[in-house]
Write a structure and sequence with these properties.
Blueprint lengths: L1 E8 L5 E8 L7 E6 L9 H11 L3 E6 L16 H18 L5 E5 L1 H10 L7 E5 L16 H7 L1 E6 L2 E6 H8 L3 H6 L4 E6 L9 H9 L4 E5 L10 H15 L17 E4 L8 E5 L2 E5 L14 H24 L6 E11 L12 E11 L5 H11 L3 H7 L10
Parallel strand pairs: 3-4, 3-5, 5-6, 6-9, 9-10
Antiparallel strand pairs: 1-2, 2-4, 7-8, 11-12, 12-13, 14-15
Helix pairs in contact: 1-8, 2-3
């Protein structure tokens, strides 16, 4: 995926820092706008994981830092909930001017509440998905409950949120009190997906019930059983991203995919922050490759050698099926199991360097149909003629160059 760092101005003239993620080798089918949680920023691991799943479905994503957070200008203590909503509208306007207007709005925690308010002011938004959103913005007050009296008496107080100090001013609380989320949701008339964990100790599951009851159809609810509020488990965040991507396309414009003209058959990208988790695009399809956790990966996909073995297995079953169809043999279901390992050369014939290890693929063929022994023997012979098998046995050159 391509990543673009951007800056755009909000209503007050502050430059907000954002990042646009684009799918590989194609123009986005749709654009989504991400509204992160209270005092978080665009670099939260859950934001990256959710975005990755959407990008693999052809989405472009704009993630940005609200006023005074992350790399954005402005003083957080002077901001409020209404300002967050205005920041989202400014972000949507930037997308509409420089790319295409966003159709999907994703909100996390208080960012979910802000997403509903922003969606009510954005005609381009067709679907809203929220994760752990409070049913009323003033729910966030419990995060600094011990400082409420000080804020009301002195007009402000320093509170600690997620291990960092923030100045919260009285106007922030007053602004929250004025916002009625159920009323906004009830009049939204856009598709809504509510995702919430029953184990969420920051924003209770009853908030999801209130939002769902207020919303009109089409509306959906998914329980994120076992997940925490910030989706710190990457598997939970990936799951959320896949759900949102699959659900939302039902409600978005069915634009024909616009591919970028490219001479590359396969493209792979590994983001700096993603350990070994690699996004692959081949033709119209996205894959994820990774390494096991014990070597520093996330185990989100097959290893490169697993993919190589998969190529051999897939090519073999296709070749066998094609041959059997031509011969009109009752081959039935075809299964090919492939194992890859390295063996010392001393275990193999015709190799001079007895200390060298070579790659060995073990291939096992299985057929559910009724075949004679002669037919089975012929199919074993045909398996060796599959194109990937021939490629692995031929002399191969890899030319590497810089772009």
């Amino acid at each position: 995926m391509a990543s673009l760092k951007i800056k755009f101005s909000n209503k007050n003239g502050n430059l907000l820092s954002g990042r646009i993620e684009l799918p590989l080798n194609q123009k986005p089918k749709h654009f989504a706008l991400f509204s992160h949680c209270f005092t978080c920023n665009k670099n939260l691991s859950a934001v990256r994981s959710i975005s990755r799943a959407l990008i693999q479905k052809g989405f472009g994503i704009l993630q940005f830092d609200f006023t005074g957070l992350g790399e954005s200008e402005g003083d957080f203590s002077d901001s409020n909930f209404s300002g967050n909503v205005e920041d989202l509208i400014s972000a949507a306007e930037y997308l509409e001017t420089h790319f295409i207007a966003p159709e999907l709005l994703i909100g996390h925690s208080l960012g979910g509440a802000a997403a509903y308010f922003a969606a009510s002011n954005l005609k381009s938004i067709k679907a809203v998905a929220t994760i752990g959103a409070p049913s009323n913005p003033d729910h966030v007050e419990h995060l600094f409950e011990q400082s409420l009296e000080m804020i009301r008496h002195f007009g402000q107080a320093e509170v600690e949120l997620s291990g960092r100090p923030f100045i919260i001013k009285k106007h922030f609380l007053d602004d929250l009190k004025e916002k009625s989320l159920p009323k906004v949701v009830q009049s939204l008339q856009k598709a809504i997906l509510i995702l919430h964990s029953p184990q969420d100790t920051t924003v209770g599951i009853e908030n999801a019930a209130t939002i769902y009851k207020a919303a009109l159809h089409p509306k959906s609810f998914v329980s994120l059983d076992g997940a925490d509020h910030l989706l710190t488990n990457r598997n939970d965040a990936e799951y959320v991203g896949q759900l949102i991507a699959s659900w939302s396309v039902r409600y978005l414009s069915l634009n024909e995919e616009q591919k970028v003209i490219t001479s590359h058959q396969v493209a792979a990208v590994l983001k700096e922050e993603d350990s070994f988790t690699t996004t692959i695009k081949t033709g119209d399809h996205y894959l994820t490759a990774d390494e096991p956790e014990q070597v520093g990966g996330n185990n989100f996909g097959p290893t490169p050698y697993d993919l190589l073995a998969s190529s051999l297995a897939a090519c073999t079953v296709m070749t066998l099926k094609m041959y059997a169809n031509q011969k009109k043999w009752a081959i039935g279901d075809v299964q090919v199991h492939v194992n890859h390992k390295k063996e010392h050369a001393e275990d193999c014939e015709h190799l001079n360097d007895q200390h060298k290890k070579i790659d060995v693929f073990e291939r096992i063929l299985m057929f559910s149909g009724i075949l004679t022994e002669e037919q089975k023997a012929k199919l074993v012979e045909i398996a060796d003629k599959c194109p990937v098998h021939k490629t692995l046995h031929s002399s191969i050159l890899v030319h590497t160059k810089l772009n």
